[in-house]
């Protein structure tokens, strides 16, 4: 029972970390696209 609980907690943390890194990647991509659009507008 205890081991199962620990395993479950570890999976949750890993999932959270994965979600966080995906969020970071998406926001970086969005920022990049906005910069790109700004360059196109300026030209």
In short:
This protein is mostly helical and about 45 residues long.
Describe the structure.
This protein is mainly α. It has one domain. 95% of the residues lie in helices and 0% in strands. The chain is rod-shaped. The N and C termini lie far apart (63 Å). The model has no long low-confidence stretch (mean pLDDT 86).
Helices and strands in order:
Elements: H1 2-42
Radius of gyration: 19 Å
When the domains are counted, the total is 1
The largest pleated sheet is described as:
none
Q: What is the overall number of helices?
A: 1
Keyword list:
rod-shaped; mainly alpha
């Amino acid at each position: 029972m205890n081991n199962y609980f620990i395993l479950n907690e570890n999976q949750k943390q890993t999932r959270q970390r994965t979600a966080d890194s995906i969020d970071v990647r998406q926001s970086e991509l969005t920022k990049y696209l906005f910069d790109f659009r700004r360059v196109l507008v300026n030209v």
